[in-house]
Design goal:
This protein has about 250 residues and is mainly alpha-helical. The protein contains 13 helices and no strands. The termini are far apart.
Protein backbone atom coordinates (compact mmCIF):
# COMPACT_ATOMS: atom_id res chain seq x y z
CA UNK A 1 0.00 0.00 0.00
CA UNK A 2 2.83 2.41 0.94
CA UNK A 3 4.66 1.58 -2.29
CA UNK A 4 1.50 2.30 -4.25
CA UNK A 5 1.07 5.69 -2.57
CA UNK A 6 4.71 6.60 -3.21
CA UNK A 7 4.30 5.88 -6.90
CA UNK A 8 1.13 7.99 -7.17
CA UNK A 9 1.10 11.42 -8.72
CA UNK A 10 0.64 14.35 -6.38
CA UNK A 11 -2.75 15.09 -7.96
CA UNK A 12 -3.94 11.57 -7.15
CA UNK A 13 -2.73 11.83 -3.56
CA UNK A 14 -4.52 15.15 -3.13
CA UNK A 15 -7.66 13.64 -4.69
CA UNK A 16 -7.59 10.74 -2.22
CA UNK A 17 -7.24 13.24 0.62
CA UNK A 18 -10.30 15.15 -0.63
CA UNK A 19 -12.23 11.91 -1.00
CA UNK A 20 -11.40 10.84 2.57
CA UNK A 21 -12.43 14.29 3.79
CA UNK A 22 -15.77 13.95 1.99
CA UNK A 23 -16.17 10.51 3.53
CA UNK A 24 -15.54 11.96 7.01
CA UNK A 25 -18.25 14.57 6.49
CA UNK A 26 -20.55 11.78 5.33
CA UNK A 27 -19.92 9.79 8.52
CA UNK A 28 -20.62 12.92 10.55
CA UNK A 29 -23.93 13.43 8.72
CA UNK A 30 -24.83 9.82 9.41
CA UNK A 31 -24.11 10.42 13.09
CA UNK A 32 -26.43 13.43 13.12
CA UNK A 33 -29.28 11.25 11.82
CA UNK A 34 -29.36 9.52 15.21
CA UNK A 35 -29.12 12.64 17.37
CA UNK A 36 -30.87 15.53 15.59
CA UNK A 37 -34.43 14.52 14.81
CA UNK A 38 -36.16 17.88 14.50
CA UNK A 39 -38.43 18.05 11.47
CA UNK A 40 -40.27 20.80 9.57
CA UNK A 41 -43.59 21.14 7.74
CA UNK A 42 -42.88 19.14 4.59
CA UNK A 43 -41.36 16.34 6.65
CA UNK A 44 -44.51 16.19 8.74
CA UNK A 45 -46.41 15.74 5.49
CA UNK A 46 -44.08 12.83 4.66
CA UNK A 47 -44.93 11.17 7.97
CA UNK A 48 -48.63 11.68 7.29
CA UNK A 49 -48.21 9.90 3.96
CA UNK A 50 -46.13 7.18 5.60
CA UNK A 51 -48.77 6.45 8.25
CA UNK A 52 -51.60 6.34 5.73
CA UNK A 53 -52.86 3.06 4.25
CA UNK A 54 -51.48 2.37 0.78
CA UNK A 55 -54.81 3.13 -0.90
CA UNK A 56 -55.08 6.47 0.91
CA UNK A 57 -51.45 7.26 0.08
CA UNK A 58 -52.17 6.76 -3.61
CA UNK A 59 -55.35 8.85 -3.47
CA UNK A 60 -53.53 11.67 -1.66
CA UNK A 61 -50.52 11.41 -3.98
CA UNK A 62 -52.65 11.78 -7.10
CA UNK A 63 -53.53 15.26 -5.90
CA UNK A 64 -50.05 16.11 -4.64
CA UNK A 65 -47.46 18.05 -6.59
CA UNK A 66 -44.73 15.46 -5.92
CA UNK A 67 -44.59 11.93 -7.38
CA UNK A 68 -45.09 8.94 -5.10
CA UNK A 69 -41.92 6.89 -5.60
CA UNK A 70 -40.15 8.27 -2.52
CA UNK A 71 -43.11 7.54 -0.25
CA UNK A 72 -43.27 3.96 -1.56
CA UNK A 73 -39.53 3.59 -0.92
CA UNK A 74 -39.89 4.95 2.62
CA UNK A 75 -42.79 2.61 3.39
CA UNK A 76 -40.91 -0.39 1.95
CA UNK A 77 -37.73 0.55 3.83
CA UNK A 78 -39.63 0.51 7.12
CA UNK A 79 -40.82 -3.08 6.67
CA UNK A 80 -37.49 -4.88 7.34
CA UNK A 81 -36.62 -2.32 10.04
CA UNK A 82 -39.93 -3.02 11.84
CA UNK A 83 -39.24 -6.74 11.56
CA UNK A 84 -35.75 -6.46 13.06
CA UNK A 85 -36.28 -3.65 15.58
CA UNK A 86 -39.40 -3.41 17.74
CA UNK A 87 -39.06 0.13 19.09
CA UNK A 88 -37.72 1.98 16.07
CA UNK A 89 -38.04 5.70 15.40
CA UNK A 90 -39.50 6.34 11.91
CA UNK A 91 -37.82 9.75 11.80
CA UNK A 92 -34.35 8.23 12.27
CA UNK A 93 -35.15 5.53 9.71
CA UNK A 94 -36.28 8.19 7.23
CA UNK A 95 -33.13 10.23 7.74
CA UNK A 96 -31.01 7.14 7.12
CA UNK A 97 -33.00 6.46 3.96
CA UNK A 98 -32.26 9.99 2.78
CA UNK A 99 -28.53 9.67 3.36
CA UNK A 100 -28.20 6.41 1.37
CA UNK A 101 -27.97 8.34 -1.96
CA UNK A 102 -24.90 10.14 -0.64
CA UNK A 103 -23.13 6.82 -0.07
CA UNK A 104 -24.23 5.65 -3.52
CA UNK A 105 -22.73 8.78 -5.10
CA UNK A 106 -19.50 8.23 -3.18
CA UNK A 107 -19.40 4.72 -4.64
CA UNK A 108 -19.91 6.25 -8.09
CA UNK A 109 -17.04 8.62 -7.35
CA UNK A 110 -14.70 5.86 -6.21
CA UNK A 111 -15.51 3.63 -9.19
CA UNK A 112 -16.70 5.12 -12.46
CA UNK A 113 -15.62 8.73 -11.91
CA UNK A 114 -12.20 7.68 -10.59
CA UNK A 115 -11.76 5.22 -13.47
CA UNK A 116 -12.69 7.76 -16.13
CA UNK A 117 -11.21 10.97 -14.71
CA UNK A 118 -8.73 10.04 -11.95
CA UNK A 119 -8.57 10.44 -8.20
CA UNK A 120 -8.39 14.25 -8.24
CA UNK A 121 -11.76 14.57 -9.99
CA UNK A 122 -13.23 11.83 -7.79
CA UNK A 123 -12.02 13.62 -4.66
CA UNK A 124 -13.40 17.00 -5.73
CA UNK A 125 -16.69 15.30 -6.61
CA UNK A 126 -16.88 13.54 -3.22
CA UNK A 127 -16.20 16.72 -1.28
CA UNK A 128 -18.59 18.85 -3.35
CA UNK A 129 -21.58 16.50 -3.12
CA UNK A 130 -21.32 16.68 0.67
CA UNK A 131 -20.36 20.29 1.28
CA UNK A 132 -22.18 22.34 -1.35
CA UNK A 133 -24.74 24.75 0.19
CA UNK A 134 -27.93 23.12 1.51
CA UNK A 135 -26.93 19.61 0.49
CA UNK A 136 -26.21 18.59 4.10
CA UNK A 137 -29.80 19.56 4.92
CA UNK A 138 -31.21 17.61 1.99
CA UNK A 139 -29.34 14.45 2.98
CA UNK A 140 -30.98 14.38 6.42
CA UNK A 141 -34.55 15.43 5.60
CA UNK A 142 -37.55 13.13 5.32
CA UNK A 143 -37.95 14.19 1.71
CA UNK A 144 -37.05 12.94 -1.76
CA UNK A 145 -34.43 15.57 -2.63
CA UNK A 146 -31.32 13.45 -2.03
CA UNK A 147 -32.71 10.60 -4.13
CA UNK A 148 -33.58 13.02 -6.92
CA UNK A 149 -30.00 14.30 -6.86
CA UNK A 150 -28.63 10.76 -7.02
CA UNK A 151 -30.81 9.70 -9.96
CA UNK A 152 -29.82 12.75 -12.01
CA UNK A 153 -26.11 12.48 -11.13
CA UNK A 154 -25.98 8.76 -11.89
CA UNK A 155 -27.86 9.35 -15.16
CA UNK A 156 -25.19 11.83 -16.23
CA UNK A 157 -22.42 9.33 -15.37
CA UNK A 158 -24.06 6.58 -17.42
CA UNK A 159 -24.69 8.91 -20.35
CA UNK A 160 -20.96 9.66 -20.33
CA UNK A 161 -20.30 5.90 -20.26
CA UNK A 162 -22.56 5.35 -23.28
CA UNK A 163 -20.91 8.11 -25.27
CA UNK A 164 -17.29 7.45 -24.41
CA UNK A 165 -16.87 3.85 -23.27
CA UNK A 166 -19.58 1.32 -24.01
CA UNK A 167 -23.02 1.67 -25.56
CA UNK A 168 -24.19 -1.67 -24.18
CA UNK A 169 -27.67 -2.90 -23.33
CA UNK A 170 -26.59 -2.91 -19.68
CA UNK A 171 -25.66 0.78 -19.68
CA UNK A 172 -28.81 1.70 -21.60
CA UNK A 173 -30.91 -0.36 -19.17
CA UNK A 174 -29.38 1.32 -16.12
CA UNK A 175 -29.86 4.75 -17.73
CA UNK A 176 -33.51 4.04 -18.48
CA UNK A 177 -34.13 2.86 -14.91
CA UNK A 178 -32.38 5.90 -13.42
CA UNK A 179 -34.21 8.45 -15.56
CA UNK A 180 -37.63 6.88 -14.99
CA UNK A 181 -36.98 6.85 -11.23
CA UNK A 182 -35.89 10.48 -11.53
CA UNK A 183 -39.19 11.48 -13.12
CA UNK A 184 -41.23 9.72 -10.45
CA UNK A 185 -39.15 11.12 -7.58
CA UNK A 186 -39.37 14.88 -8.21
CA UNK A 187 -40.51 17.01 -11.15
CA UNK A 188 -37.30 19.09 -11.15
CA UNK A 189 -35.14 15.97 -11.40
CA UNK A 190 -37.47 14.74 -14.14
CA UNK A 191 -36.83 17.92 -16.11
CA UNK A 192 -33.07 17.57 -15.55
CA UNK A 193 -33.14 13.97 -16.81
CA UNK A 194 -35.18 14.99 -19.83
CA UNK A 195 -32.58 17.65 -20.72
CA UNK A 196 -29.71 15.19 -20.23
CA UNK A 197 -31.38 12.65 -22.46
CA UNK A 198 -32.17 15.30 -25.06
CA UNK A 199 -28.47 16.23 -25.25
CA UNK A 200 -27.62 12.54 -25.61
CA UNK A 201 -30.16 12.19 -28.42
CA UNK A 202 -28.73 15.22 -30.26
CA UNK A 203 -25.18 13.93 -29.79
CA UNK A 204 -26.03 10.51 -31.21
CA UNK A 205 -27.81 12.04 -34.22
CA UNK A 206 -24.76 14.16 -34.95
CA UNK A 207 -21.93 11.76 -34.12
CA UNK A 208 -23.04 8.17 -33.77
CA UNK A 209 -26.16 7.13 -35.66
CA UNK A 210 -25.27 3.45 -35.19
CA UNK A 211 -25.78 3.66 -31.42
CA UNK A 212 -28.90 5.73 -32.02
CA UNK A 213 -30.30 2.96 -34.19
CA UNK A 214 -29.30 0.24 -31.72
CA UNK A 215 -30.97 2.04 -28.82
CA UNK A 216 -34.01 3.30 -30.70
CA UNK A 217 -36.62 1.24 -28.86
CA UNK A 218 -35.06 2.06 -25.48
CA UNK A 219 -35.06 5.74 -26.33
CA UNK A 220 -38.64 5.69 -27.58
CA UNK A 221 -39.77 3.95 -24.40
CA UNK A 222 -37.82 6.35 -22.22
CA UNK A 223 -39.04 9.48 -24.02
CA UNK A 224 -42.62 8.36 -23.54
CA UNK A 225 -42.07 8.02 -19.78
CA UNK A 226 -40.09 11.24 -19.51
CA UNK A 227 -42.57 13.35 -21.49
CA UNK A 228 -45.57 11.84 -19.73
CA UNK A 229 -44.06 12.20 -16.25
CA UNK A 230 -42.58 15.67 -16.68
CA UNK A 231 -45.67 17.19 -18.30
CA UNK A 232 -48.02 15.50 -15.83
CA UNK A 233 -46.22 16.73 -12.71
CA UNK A 234 -45.51 20.16 -14.15
CA UNK A 235 -49.22 20.57 -14.82
CA UNK A 236 -50.00 19.49 -11.26
CA UNK A 237 -47.38 21.90 -9.90
CA UNK A 238 -48.91 24.83 -11.80
CA UNK A 239 -52.38 24.21 -10.38
CA UNK A 240 -51.35 22.76 -7.00
CA UNK A 241 -53.12 23.89 -3.83
CA UNK A 242 -51.88 22.09 -0.71
CA UNK A 243 -54.45 20.36 1.47
CA UNK A 244 -53.72 21.88 4.87
CA UNK A 245 -56.21 19.50 6.47
CA UNK A 246 -53.79 16.62 5.95
CA UNK A 247 -51.45 18.11 8.52
CA UNK A 248 -54.12 18.71 11.15
Amino acid sequence: MNVGLKNMKSDDKFGILLFVLGLCFTFYLTYTCFHYIQIWGDEIYTLVMLNSPLSDMINIGVGDVHPLLYYFMYKAFLKPVAFLITNYNPIIVGKLLSIIPLYLMLILGATKIRKNFGWLTAGIFALCIVCMPQLMNFYTQLRMYSWALFFVTASFVYIWEIINNESSYKNWGVLILLTICSVYTHYFSGIASFILYLFLFVYLIKNNKKDLKNGFLQQLYLYWHLCHGVLFYLAKWLVYTPDIGLLL
